[in-house]
Write a structure and sequence with these properties.
This protein is 56% helix and 11% strand. With 162 residues, it is an alpha/beta fold. The longest helix is centred in the N-terminal third of the chain and has 16 residues, at 23-38.
Length: 162
């Protein structure tokens, strides 16, 4: 059985965007493209309606490129439990109230029992300083938290295992 991966919006954005002039972002884009090309088939991928909403925003042509990447990817159901877990994450102090969308990404993955949350959001998601608080908040609501990681981490983990 394949592991499941929740794709947070930064992953889709980095895949669809033109190569950035910022060296760090460009490197993240290239790593994301490598993961997409070489590893994505090894996982069952999922997104939430929130990812669809965020990917739809902004420039029309860019939004169309982002949405095209989401074809054939499972869209998770929004539930009361997702909202409750997201609120618990914010209430725990793991994320500020203004980052409720980020908390929702974690909540979707936790409630739907997805092992990995793939993201380049280093401010609120793939952040070692917040990880234990996010995990405690999820567990306090009865859900196991996803492993929040970047494509580089998930790419490397599979290179090591093989």
């Amino acid at each position: 059985m394949k592991h499941r991966v929740y794709l947070e919006t930064t992953i889709i954005s980095y895949l669809a965007a033109l190569l950035s002039r910022d060296l760090i972002i460009a490197a993240h884009q290239q790593i994301t493209q490598e993961w997409w090309a070489t590893r994505r088939a090894e996982f069952d991928l999922a997104v939430s309606p929130l990812v669809i909403q965020e990917a739809s925003a902004g420039d029309e042509a860019a939004a169309a490129r982002r949405l095209a990447l989401l074809t054939d990817i499972t869209i998770l159901e929004t539930t009361d439990q997702v909202s409750a877990v997201a609120q618990a994450i914010v209430d725990s102090g793991a994320m500020p109230a203004k980052a409720i969308a980020d908390a929702l990404h974690v909540a979707f993955a936790a409630v739907h029992q997805i092992e990995y949350l793939l993201t380049w959001n280093l401010a609120h998601l793939a952040n070692a300083a917040m990880r234990s608080t996010i995990e405690r908040a999820c567990r306090s609501t009865g859900y196991e938290p996803p492993i929040i990681c970047t494509p580089e981490e998930l790419l490397e983990a599979y290179h090591v295992e093989r």
